[in-house]
Write a structure and sequence with these properties.
Helix content is 5%, strand content 32%. By secondary structure, it is mainly β. The protein has two domains: 624 residues, no CATH class; 34 residues, no CATH class.
Length: 661
């Protein structure tokens, strides 16, 4: 609506957005039956808590303001003129130029995004709130230097105009410098692709007709935020014409790269051509050159809000989450060992016929680069590009005041059945005391003893699992396998994870998870947004099942808690501590101790396990055909508030409805 005589005119409201996210699959057809009485349907009597929830709109949702976004098209296979498998000197991470670009013909400018602000009515006047506008446009990802580029090709990726694009920081001796400027949106000002973000908790009452607008405002639109379950309405006013008071320095989220984050370090996967980087000198923390090889910046950083603090020790290394009990004055102890990723094998001791063992540390960390970083008053966004043979895999973390979302574009080749791909959070021993999900809302003790009755089948040919407390089913499977003599007949053996219908839902998107302890609670949920569904990817998400292991004796070969992994990635691990005593599995009576007296174990570890995939690399086309895109939302809560998973884990079944006027 337009400003008329300095007042707000009486509006008519138009429904702008009702975007319930789709589950990874609404998998009624899965063969695995649900446990008796279980249902993926949310409780209609439980209202979703909105105090941590963000609202994200597109420029197209503000009628009459945004100009059309840019339209591009890229021919497939044009990169085959240079792929590292056949041609030396191919280009490293860069954006490929599209053959069709509407901005080259005409690109009308929209309203200046630096003059768009958000306001709520506090009963007496308009009060400005943190409000963020992020420019969005499409690129085509290319890393022809990668040893797997001949398979991956170039992939369309629509993302933000970043403050910093890490893949450009390739110049310099010890300290990285950019070799080119960041890409900018070819359409100036607000266009239909751009995103606008604010917090649902920052909305207020409806302003009365005739309320005076803030000075210098030329246009305004009222957003009505409706909870469809409770029918509660609140309002936010988007105004044009003023410079925002909030920015990345005084907003909700602070993002700080470490003082040494730009130092060049050796960055090379054990599969040395995957995610190929340029060769150059790399240095120690004091600035001394210590070698020459494939190198990238360290890229360590910390994200801080009044609710939580989140730590990066590398691009794929997310190693520390702390929750504040007192609105940012102090932060509790670290709750997580780290986020972990696996491809082909759960543990390094397994041996599969086709593929090696991949993990988040040396493999994905050593073959990746930062696509971009962006910070504003409402959120910080960070994207990582590359994961070994997944040349154009991208993972994005978006941090808000009291929650975070992790979105992954899985673009990779065929993955054989059984062990597939894993992504999970491993918690620190003794920090979290209870895990629950929508099938078991009262939950289980996090004590290093597995509660999954059927899902975790340990490697039958590895004697270190003979005494593991993983339940009778796993040990019966192992004994039968050994008795049949299979270990002697074949060199291939592995730990296997399958769905346990007594413990969780048959698909990861059908359940929320809650992990709680005295120092904080995390509620998480997987989903797929309607905009991200691809024809080939949707079917493959049927194989995405929830993963859970609470087993302090299970060694997945990375991490530092309750004991450090002394021989990273190795199929064998040292059995004695530095003082010569025998290492053992952690138990709750050991408290929160972290020591080499304990083995590295999985504590309350959970996430998603994609059993297999046919292909998600878009069949070497430049448009999304079969890529698998999924998102995990994590809500951070202080202390242990009890069973709150149903209150914080149903946002995509009970989405907020936004109406504009």
């Amino acid at each position: 609506m337009e400003k008329q005589g300095g007042n707000i005119c009486d509006p008519r409201e138009h429904l702008l957005v009702l975007r319930p996210a789709l589950a990874l699959a609404l998998v009624v057809g899965l063969a695995v039956p649900l446990a008796s009485g279980a249902s993926p349907v949310p409780d209609p009597l439980v209202a979703e808590q909105r105090d941590t929830e963000a609202v994200v709109l597109h420029g197209s949702d503000l009628p009459g303001w945004a100009v059309p976004g840019n339209v591009t098209a890229k021919l497939p296979l044009t990169d085959l003129s240079c792929v590292s498998a056949t041609t030396p000197g191919c280009a490293h991470n860069h954006y490929a130029t599209p053959e069709v670009d509407s901005a080259k013909v005409a690109a009308p400018a929209g309203p200046d995004i630096l003059t768009i602000t958000g306001w709520r009515w506090d009963g007496k006047r308009f009060v400005e709130v943190p409000f963020q506008v992020d420019e969005v446009f499409t690129r085509y990802l290319d890393n022809s230097a990668s040893g797997f580029a001949v398979y991956s090709g170039e992939d369309q990726h629509t993302t933000y105009a970043f403050d910093r694009e890490g893949f450009r920081w390739t110049k310099g001796r010890c300290v990285a410098q950019p070799d080119s400027a960041v890409a900018t949106d070819p359409v100036k000002g607000l266009d239909t692709d751009d995103e606008l973000a604010f917090m649902a908790a920052d909305t207020g009452a409806a302003a009365p007709s005739g309320a005076s607008l803030p000075a210098h405002v030329t246009k305004t639109q009222r957003l009505t935020v409706l909870d469809p379950v409770t029918q509660h309405r609140s309002y936010l006013y988007v105004m044009l014409g003023r410079t925002p008071s909030f920015n990345a320095r005084n907003g909700d989220v602070r993002y700080q790269r470490d003082p040494g984050a730009d130092r060049f370090a050796l960055s090379q996967s054990s599969y040395d051509t995957y995610g190929n980087a340029a060769v150059g000198p790399y240095c120690d923390a004091k600035g001394n050159v210590i070698g020459k090889g494939r190198r990238r910046p360290v890229d360590s950083a910390t994200v801080t809000t009044d609710r939580y603090r989140y730590r990066y020790d590398g691009r794929w290394l997310m190693t520390d989450v702390r929750i504040s009990p007192d609105v940012g004055k102090t932060y509790g102890p670290d709750l997580v060992d780290r986020w972990k990723a696996r491809a082909f094998q759960q543990d390094s001791g397994s041996n599969t016929p086709c593929c090696g063992y991949e993990e988040e540390d040396t493999n994905w960390g050593g073959s990746s680069t930062l696509l971009g970083e962006r910070s504003g008053p409402v959120r910080t966004i960070r994207e990582t590009w590359g994961a070994d043979s997944g040349t154009n895999v991208v993972r994005r973390e978006t941090f808000y005041r009291a929650e975070m979302t992790m979105k992954t574009w899985l673009r990779v080749h065929v993955i054989p059945p059984l062990d597939g791909i894993y992504a999970q959070w491993d918690f620190n021993a003794g920090r979290m005391t209870r895990f629950s999900n929508s099938l078991h809302p009262q939950g289980f003790a996090v004590d290093g003893r597995n509660d999954d009755a059927y899902g975790n089948l340990d490697d039958p040919c590895n004697p270190k699992y003979d005494l593991n407390d993983t339940g009778p089913t796993s040990q019966a499977y192992r004994k039968a396998y050994q008795a049949a003599g299979v270990c002697a007949l074949s060199p291939y053996h592995q730990s296997v994870d399958v769905a346990d219908p007594t413990f969780g839902m048959p698909n990861a998107a059908l359940q929320w998870n809650q992990t709680s302890g005295p120092w904080g609670t995390i509620v998480d949920r997987y989903s797929v947004g309607a905009r991200d569904v691809t024809p080939g990817g949707a079917a493959q998400t049927l194989a995405a099942q929830p993963y859970y292991r609470d087993d302090s004796c299970f060694d997945d070969a990375t991490g530092s808690n309750p004991g450090p992994r002394l021989k990273l990635r190795s199929a064998t691990e040292r059995q004695t501590a530095a003082d010569g005593t025998t290492r053992r599995c952690w138990t709750p009576k050991d408290g929160t101790a972290e020591s080499d007296h304990f083995f590295q174990g999985d504590i309350g570890t959970h996430g998603v396990h994609l059993l297999f995939q046919v292909d998600s690399d878009n069949a070497r086309q430049t448009v999304p055909l079969d890529e698998i895109v999924f998102e995990q939302r994590q809500v951070f809560l202080p202390g242990d508030p009890g069973a709150v998973g149903e209150k914080y884990g149903r946002a995509f079944e009970k989405p907020l409805v936004v109406l504009a006027s």
